[in-house]
Write a structure and sequence with these properties.
It is a single chain. This protein is α/β, with parallel strands linked by helices and about 150 residues long. The longest helix is centred in the N-terminal third of the chain and has 16 residues, at about 1-15. It contains five helices and five strands; from the N terminus they run H-E-E-H-E-H-H-E-E-H. The chain is globular, with a radius of gyration of 17 Å. A three-stranded parallel β-sheet has the order 3-4-5. A hairpin with a 5-residue loop joins strand 1 and strand 2 (about 40).
């Protein structure tokens, strides 16, 4: 029984591991406008020698919200970003195609995925944010957070 349970758990985890890009493939470029109206180009950041962290999230995702509230990425950005050692760039990408951009800045409860927001995602971070639906398909995002 114990071996069967381990096999089932292992297969479920393996299925989740296949939900992203294949090893040794190039990440698709992300070219979009941030919610502040700035043009963003992932390849330009990488060509400039920066390490880039892409936080792909959804406004309705509780683990995404917990991670956001913890300030972990903001701490990294403050230490290694433009005001720190200047070796890191970050971008938060809301990529659920059902979610309108205005849910990034307000709480909307009682709805379903795509119509709910757990808070104001702009509070507590200084790195760029965008609502870019194509990222989910370009990066084969099957679940959040990623």
């Amino acid at each position: 029984m114990k071996n069967t349970l381990l096999l089932v758990v292992g297969l479920l985890c393996a299925g989740q591991a296949l939900a992203q890009l294949d090893d040794y493939t190039n990440a698709p470029n992300i070219q979009a406008t941030t919610i502040d109206g700035e043009q963003y180009d992932l390849y330009a950041q990488l060509d400039s020698g920066y390490t880039v962290i892409i936080d792909v999230m959804a406004t309705w995702c509780p683990p995404c919200w917990s991670w956001h509230e913890g300030g972990y990425f903001e701490d990294l950005y403050e230490t290694y970003g433009p005001n720190g050692t200047d070796e890191l760039r970050m971008i938060m990408v809301e990529s659920d195609s059902r979610t309108p951009e205005d849910l990034l800045t307000r709480v909307a409860s009682g709805g379903t995925a795509g119509t709910t927001s757990l808070g104001d995602w702009t509070e507590g971070i200084t790195y760029p944010i965008m609502n870019a639906d194509q990222v989910a398909s370009d990066y084969d995002i099957g679940y959040y957070p990623t």
